[in-house]
Specification:
By secondary structure, the chain is mainly α. The protein has one domain. It is built from two helices and no strands. Helix 1 packs antiparallel against helix 2. The longest helix has 60 residues. The termini are far apart. Keywords: Hydrogen ion transport, Ion transport, Membrane, Transmembrane, Transmembrane helix, Transport.
Length: 105
């Protein structure tokens, strides 16, 4: 009985609309690739620079703080400070070299 009732018939798909949809999807995907590739390279370089800086500063400050504290506790000023500061610097450069030798993704 429902098939005999008057009502709106579904519209046929227009070829122009489907063509426009396809072109729009293609343009959006190309734009995403173009913008995504440029941003990800810049972001990864920025992150790598921050990681190298953190390694350098963290190792030096860590060595100096631990060395200064041990010097204060043991009364061997400034020898442990100098030794641990140079060990921190050596460790920082070793880590920076290791980071720079990794293959970029």
């Amino acid at each position: 009985m429902a098939e005999n009732e008057p009502g709106l018939e579904p519209l046929q798909e227009d070829a122009r609309i489907t063509s426009l949809d396809e072109r729009l999807k293609r343009a959006k995907s190309e734009e995403a690739v173009r913008n995504g590739a440029a941003e990800s390279k810049g972001d990864s370089s920025y992150a790598l620079g921050n990681r190298v800086l953190a390694e350098l500063i963290g190792s030096m400050v860590g060595g100096a703080v631990i060395g200064g504290t041990l010097d204060w506790l043991l009364g061997t000023s400034p020898w442990l400070l100098l030794v641990l500061l140079f060990l921190g610097i050596a460790s920082a450069f070793r880590n920076i070299i290791r980071i720079s030798n990794q293959r970029s993704k």
